[in-house]
Amino acid sequence: MSKINIVLADDHVLVRNGIKAMLESENDIRVIGEAGDGNEALETAKTLKPDIVVLDIRMPNMTGLEAAAKLKSYSPGSKAVILSMHDSEEYVLQALDAGAYGYLLKDTDKNEFIKALKQIHGGTKYFSGGVSNVLANRLLHTKPYTSAPAPTQKDDQYHLTKREKEILGLVIDGKHNKEIADSLSKSVRTIETHRFNIMKKLEVNNAVDMVNKAVKENLL
Amino acid sequence: MSKINIVLADDHVLVRNGIKAMLESENDIRVIGEAGDGNEALETAKTLKPDIVVLDIRMPNMTGLEAAAKLKSYSPGSKAVILSMHDSEEYVLQALDAGAYGYLLKDTDKNEFIKALKQIHGGTKYFSGGVSNVLANRLLHTKPYTSAPAPTQKDDQYHLTKREKEILGLVIDGKHNKEIADSLSKSVRTIETHRFNIMKKLEVNNAVDMVNKAVKENLL
DNA sequence: AGTATTTTACGTATTTATACTTAATTTATT
DNA sequence: AATAAATTAAGTATAAATACGTAAAATACT
């Protein structure tokens, strides 16, 4: 069996070196190229036709997500893997949407990283355990992901503050105001105020509709 | 911080011992109970109220999946984790549907296992990397999982009458009791009685949870 | 025809949510 | 330092939901 050829794209040389060192011990994996930004990653992939391109999500010129989406037209046989520090739902879903074969968190340990690369090379997607949560919840709440709904002003129309989102989340979990108040060490009146404000913002007039709308508009 | 209390359910003593040995080194995790089949797992959970119940998928009397589904009524605070040898799509999706917080493959290594338990204890779902593929594909190919064919007697546990379902549907639509009463030409008291009965049947104690459970259990 | 289930609805009491307003603190932003 | 935004929380009033128990009709099932 031939080695798995990798191209690493990350704007920090240090990070690239770290990953390279990590992979060096594994002798069926080989880093054949590196890139410092999205464009370069695509060009390198086009030239070297690696099996896998590891893309940092945050890079100059072009993000890893954009690069992942374009990868197949530069090197059809290469598979993109997104590397990220965050387990943000948006990112994970966008990665999926961009056709990425994996989404790895930066705190993934060596063993898992290698396991993931091998699995992906075998054609199976791999999402870090820390991220599977996002997929699971998305599936449970059964909205198939419709690629990015242009977070223009819609985001503002229903703009909720951090605290409001937190409380909304607890309401969605079926918690009573009293429970929420206790768990946040706040007065029940405060929670009531927040709920009132949330309902006003969402233009609804009862808790169930509030939850409905929150889920529908994905405000959590 | 207190330890994470675990109950292990697997029909093979050897497997239980293996897992126990694996977890022993971790000093914020403690195995407080064991069970050899699904029924026993539920009874043990009811008594010991562990944080997490690790359930082998294949067990005598009751499978891990069934036990996971019933766990919340035996020990509401406990989270179920399914342990399986297979990454079968059906199993994974059924685990999700049963409300499990995780799905771990039996070849999961020690580090990952512990990471998973901690993460799950923190309230975040964890699905083995080898399994995330299933979730990802399911999401991409966008058929939201419609809970398995005929859930045998589960149907009976939460059996709602036609009227109750009708009213539940209206509640889910965010209607107030007054509106429901008007649209059905019934008294508000009647609607209240129905709601009370529905909530008793679903073992919940507020409207949002009623809706949550109804959606989750697909009772409409 | 007789029994079981479902649907309807009242009583009574308690709790919780809704509907606003106002306003004192914190925390961010410029 | 000044302004804006967010968080907290009170007042006051009304409306609605929750928690049972009880029970008369209407339907369904054997």
Counting helices, strands and paired strands, the structural category of chain A is: alpha/beta
User: CATH superfamily name of the largest domain in chain A?
Assistant: Response regulator
Largest interface: A-B, 40 and 42 residues
Which strand-content bin applies to the residues of chain A?
5-15%
**Total of DSSP H or I helical runs spanning 4+ residues of chain A:** 11
Euclidean distance between termini CA atoms of chain A = 46 Å
Outline of chain A: elongated
What's the multimeric state?
Answer: homodimer
CATH architecture of the largest domain in chain A: 3-Layer(aba) Sandwich
- Kindly give the count of domains of chain A: 2
Description:
Two copies of one chain form a homodimer. Chain A is built from eleven helices and six strands. With 220 residues, chain A is an alpha/beta fold. The first copy, chain A, folds into two domains: 4-140, Response regulator (Rossmann fold, 3-Layer(aba) Sandwich); 154-217, Winged helix-like DNA-binding domain superfamily/Winged helix DNA-binding domain (Arc Repressor Mutant, subunit A, Orthogonal Bundle). Chain A has a six-stranded parallel sheet, sandwiched between helices. In chain A, helix 5 links the parallel strand 5 (102-105) and strand 6. In chain A, helix 2 runs parallel beside helix 3 and helix 8 (162-172) packs across helix 10. The radius of gyration of chain A is 21 Å and the shape is elongated. The structure holds a DNA duplex (30 and 30 nucleotides). Chains A, B: The modification 4-aspartylphosphate is found at residue 56. Chains A, B: Residues 153-218 form the HTH luxR-type domain. Chains A, B: Pfam families: GerE, Response_reg. Chains A, B: Keywords: DNA-binding, Phosphoprotein.
